[in-house]
Structure formats: structure tokens, C-alpha cells
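Hello, quick one for you while I still have it in my head. A protein chain has come my way and I'm curious about its shape. Can you walk me through what the C-alpha cells say about the fold? No rush at all, and the record is pasted right below.
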Amino acid sequence: MPPIVKVSSVSKSFQTPDGRTVDALKEVLLDIPAGRFTTLLGPSGCGKTTLLRLIGGFEEPDAGGIFIDGVLMEGVPAHKRPTNTVFQQYGLFPHMTVAQNVAYGLEVAKVPKPEIASRVAEALELVRLTGMDARKTAQLSGGQQQRVALARALVLRPRVLLLDEPMAALDRKLRKDMQVELKRLQHDLGIAFLCVTHDQEEALSMSDLVVVMNQGRVEQVGSPREIYDAPETEFVAGFVGEINIFRGSVSARNGDTRLRTDAGTLLELPVALADGPTAVCLRPEKLRLASAAPSLPRLTGWVRESIYLGTTTRLSVELADGDRVLTTLAGVFPVEGEDISLCYDPADLRVLKR
């Protein structure tokens, strides 16, 4: 199936007030699949919101092109694109009722009144606000206001729904509830959702596809599991969740390939590599107490810090050669100051591009 949105070698730069040129996007190539939930993930200033605005028609690229449903969008204004956007600030009209807010775009498009009424009712049912059509938006909670903004965008039946940090104003519990709701909505509607966030947990929990961005470029595209379990670069490994990164030199001896870190720790690698500088990563939960798997390679050290997290405990461990690692353990574990022996499966080590 062809992508619903194709970003072809798009670049965009801006002038700062002091006259400097900032490259927000640098020759970005990206396909957004139809009928899936895709998230642009990255730190502030990485270019994700700029890319969303270019797709939505609020900005034009300096170079390259954006295609929606196979049609080049050059010069096509936002209101004529098959997209609609929910912004971080919902932009609801406080003097209007819920129904009037949702109906506004249909009225501007001169849709017949009977059809407006039925489509508004349908949109409110989708976002579970049936019976609240006569309320003023100022009387609603933050989560309800977000649902109104979603209904107002969805009532126009876009091919792509764009979401710019849609849950930034919500508290933690409400954010989690709305993550589930957004995923349900996307599944029920079957249209493409493209969401911008800097929250890794949010991206992993909602998305079918995650696009990690950094300094105006796409670092990696993959499923949430691929992004978390198999990061390709040091940036992705460090940005998405906690991780141990080991830098050093590879050496092959007697058929075994090992990494000697800059501090001197030896790690067995899962694949044969050419000798030379290399970086590998290992998620904290992949390190276990050595007693759990006596046949696996070991790392020994002592516990510098122990932080109780409820279902697990996070340990910071200083290894014998001076490297520090994080591990997340459940059940019985050593306390601060105690010696510890950890094991790892070489297959869990990921070699990173540098």
C-alpha cells in the first residue's frame, strides 16, 4: 500500500532575530503509512513540529516536496489539504457550546444544516461526549476540552489527523487515559494519525510506527519494539529509555569477538566485527543477578546507589574496572555498598553506529 504522506528530501530553515540561519530540517525522507498511528519523537528543537506544520500546510518547504495521497502539496493552503490539526493549545471558542465548536468547520464549508447536526452527533459519540453538546467549553475539564478539539478535527473527515503535543497540558493520569483513547480512536476510524511528542513513553505506548528525529534529521524509523530493543545510533539508544552504553575497541581472539571498554571492562559480543572503535548498548533490565544464569558472562562490582521504584529497584553499579552500569531488578537484591555479580546474554548487546 502506498504511503498516505510522502516527505521527499524536504529542507527548511529559519532566520533568528539576530540574523542567524537555523536549519530546522535537512533533506528529510519519510513515508507515513495509511491507516496507522505514527509518532514523530525527539527533543525540543529537533524539527518534529516544523515537519508537522509543513505537512499541514502552515509552512512551505525551502526544498523538496510533500505528497499527500500521491498529490504534491506545493502551494496548497492548509484548509484545502486532506488533513486537520489538533494543536497543543486547543483553540476552542469559549463563547460557543461544544456542538457549536464542533460544527464550526462544517458551517464554514457550507455543509447543509441537517448533515451538520448528524455529523456533529457522530463526532461527539466517537470521542464519548454524547449528551454534552449544550455545554460551554469553559465548563469542561482539560481532558474533555481535548476531546472537543478532536471531534472538531475529525468531523471534517480528514485523510490524516495531525496532533501537535496534544496531551502536554494534561496531568499524568489523564495523559495515560487519553493515550488509550487516541489509540482506540485511530483504530476505530482507520485513518492515519501523525502525532508529535517528546515523551518516549507516550510514543511507545500509542504508536504503530515511531520516527526518532534529531537536529533536523530522521535518526531511525521502526515499530516501538524495534526502537526500544534495537536502537541503531547512540542518540536513539540514549534518548529512548534508560540504557548502558559501552565505548571501546573490538578485538577478535580464538573465534571470539570482544569489546574492551575505555575503562577496561571486557564484553563478549554477539557478532563478529572488524577490529577498531565500537559502541554497544544494553538495556538495564537485560542485566540480571549472576545466580539466575550461571552459564552467562559476568560483570562484577559493587552497588553505588539503590532506588526503590515499587515493582522494581534501580541499581547503579560500579564495575571492577571502573565502568558504571544501571540494572533494574525485581525481588531480592543487594543494598548500597554490597558486592554484586551480574550476568548478561551477549545476544542482548546492540552494536551502534557512531
User: Anything to note?
Assistant: The chain has two domains: 5-238, 242-352. The chain has eight helices and 20 strands.
